[in-house]
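Technical note accompanying the year-one report. For the benefit of new consortium partners, we illustrate the data format agreed upon in the data management plan: each record pairs a sequence with a structure-token string. No post-processing was applied to the example shown here.
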Amino acid sequence: MIFSYQLLSKLVDLSEFTPETLRNRLTFAGFEVEGMSKRAEASSLIIGQVLTCEKHPDSDHLHVLTVDCGKEEGIKDIVCGAPNVRKGLKVIVALPGCVLPALGETIKKGVIRGKESDGMCCSLLELGVDKNVLPEHSPSLNGIEELGEDAPVGERNVLAYLGLDDTLLDVNVLPNRPDCLSYIGLAREIN
């Protein structure tokens, strides 16, 4: 069964436990922790707002954007192929140097069909979020993630802002411990 470290921490005080030490504690308590993974993972992300969105002159599906990434980063030119990109949209921007483990890529500044691109607008899938946990109509399934109007432009701790800075523990609950097939049951065991 998959347990969220963040959700467990709302039920029991985990201030003394990192996800790794929690895994060890569960293992010593007789549970098999079969795996541990980040809910999403990326470096060098920032929230930006699309200022302009023009069709790419040499492509039928690409767009050339100017994206405001806040005071520190300024305005970036980005080439984007997402069908849902538009002027005014707040987006997740992967800056040059950003490592995206889900894609196995590092974002680099480059030229795409003759237009400079200084980053990438991201979907939640590109950050490593499992598509099975996304709502059926999530924009991330077919394009980039669309952030709400209240998303702060220039925010660098994007995963925390989205509630995705979490670790998932895959715990094999043995048949003789059905009491631990719920968050409350496992929290009691941890406590």
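Partners are asked to follow this layout when depositing records. Residues 19-28 form the longest helix (10 residues).
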